Amino acid sequence: MNRTNELAIELVDLKKIFIMGKMVKVHALRGVNLKVRNGEIVSIIGPSGSGKSTILNLLGALDRPTSGKIIIDGINIARLKDEALSRFRNRKIGFIFQSYNLINRSTVTKNIELPAIIRGIPRTIRRRRANELLDMVGLRGKANRKPTELSGGEQQRVAIARALINDPTFILADEPTGNLDSKTGQEIGNLLLKVNEERKATIVIVTHNIELADKTERILHLRDGIVEKETPGLVFHNTSAEQNSASTKSINEYREK
After folding, report:
1. Domain limits of the chain?
2. Are 231 and 249 in contact (CB under 8 A)?
3. Would you state the pLDDT for residue 4?
4. DSSP 190
5. Strand order in the sheet with 170-174
6. pLDDT above 70 coverage of the chain, percent
7. Secondary structure of 83-121 in HEC code, one letter for each residue
8. How is domain 40-64+82-256 classified at the CATH fold level?
9. Longest dimension (CA), the chain
10. What residues have CB less than 8 Å from 32, skipping those under 6 apart?
11. 27 vs 31: CA distance, rounded Å
12. Is 207 exposed, middle or buried (0-12, 13-18, 19+ CB in 10 A)?
């Protein structure tokens, strides 16, 4: 566990309203407050339309809030101008998507190197980093393959390596196991835990996968644009049987609502 008492992320009264057409306002987030400590791995769960992806887009500097603060690494990114926001995103944040978002015409290595190319890192350095990451995710032998020649689990491993190429402080994962079978999903979940432990990255995962959520330190339950409650991850905390039973019951009751 890499957690410290220093805050990596703080959301303060975060609101996001989408305007649909001329008259309809959709309140995606209704005043979210949450804190994530340095080195912590947390998950966000909730029904469709609860605001999970909206939070992740705001944390990833892919969108701007209607109001509120998004403080990441001590910086309120909601106040940054577009160019500064883009630099912050490229240097500080690594993204992992459900659909992998790989470039099919490029090799595995070139896909991994892409964020480093955007950042302007010299070729020799980014190639060395890419090879190290390929070793970490177990794909060194497939460096010259195209994404279409890989399985879904292998493509997600490439996506994880790509997210790490710039050595980001934060990893944001949007349904990273959503397109995978249960066994492969478990492998990807374990790989994310390895990234958290070995690279000291702060990780936020949006997921419908309760088994994956249970591997994180905290589970944030989102409903109707607010954090309704939080529960500990069962596996991560290795809680007692009684605590496990109570927490599992709480999660199951939440899912059935």
Report:
1. 40-64+82-256
2. no
3. 56
4. H
5. 93-97, 170-174, 202-206, 41-45, 218-223, 226-232
6. 89
7. HHHHHHHHHHEEEEECCCCCCCCCCHHHHHHHHHHHHCC
8. Rossmann fold (3.40.50)
9. 55
10. 11, 13, 14, 15, 51, 55, 68, 225, 226, 227
11. 10
12. buried
157 close to 195: Cβ distance less than 8 angstroms = no
Amino acid at 137: V
- The pLDDT tens digits for 2-26 are 555 699 999 999 999 999 887 789 9
With a cut of 50, say whether residue 239 has pLDDT above it: no
Nearest CA among 172, 182, 179 for reference residue 41 = 172
User: Model's pTM, two decimal places?
Assistant: 0.87
Contact 213, 205 (CB under 8 A): yes
The tens digit of pLDDT for each residue in 161-208 reads: 999 999 999 999 999 999 999 999 999 999 999 999 999 999 999 999
- C-alpha distances in angstroms, 193 versus 23, 52, 204, 215, 239? 44, 21, 11, 8, 18
Question: Residue 19: enclosing H or E segment and its boundaries?
Answer: strand 7-20
- The residues pairing with 27 across neighbouring beta strands, listed in sequence order, are 17
The torsion defined by the Cα of 55, 61, 66 and 69, in degrees rounded to 10, comes to 80
The position carrying tokens 């996001």 is 16
